[in-house]
Amino acid sequence: MRLFILIFFLLATLQIGAKTMTKEVATLAGGCFWGMEEIIRAIPGVINTTVGYTGGKIDNPTYNIVKIGTSNHAEAVEVEFNPQKLSYKQLLHYFFRMHDPTTLNRQMNDVGTQYRSAIFYQSDVQQKVALEVIQEEKQNGRWKKPIVTEVIKATKFYPAEEYHQDYLKKNPNGYTCHWLRD
What we know:
Layout (H helix, E strand, L loop, with lengths): L1 H19 L3 E7 L2 H8 L5 E9 L8 H4 L7 E8 L6 H11 L7 E2 L2 E2 L5 E5 L2 H16 L10 E4 L4 E2 L7 H4 L12
Parallel strand pairs: 6-7
Antiparallel strand pairs: 1-3, 1-6, 2-3, 2-8, 4-5
Helix pairs in contact: 4-5
């Protein structure tokens, strides 16, 4: 009987813990997804990152299609995060620090619509917060040129090929054009 009570108690505790764990999803594009993922994964409160393609006009895009730039997909990072530890607003402020939101369809050597700066919002609340953060970024003095970041309703996100996932972990000396600015 004691064993039954102990097992019941443990299962009830696990269920309560599972219910309190909340998760939100953000989809961000700011140039090559390798460097963005590397920075985002280290932010406290981030649960998981997946690099992929979104915002385009064909189903099931591949890197060989997206890199040409005609499918209108952006290289993006889908971020699962715990909003009790990291707010969407805080995540967006990191986003603006890790790339240059003033260059249209470009991040350093990466040029094309697939490297555009975009926030793909999942809800009306995310859209509102994204527009607020852009206003804050315009006023903080960090950017000398106009911010060109698009705020777009999220469409289907397609995970990139496996060799792109965690690319800079697998290839520590790989190419990146991302860093956190002050």
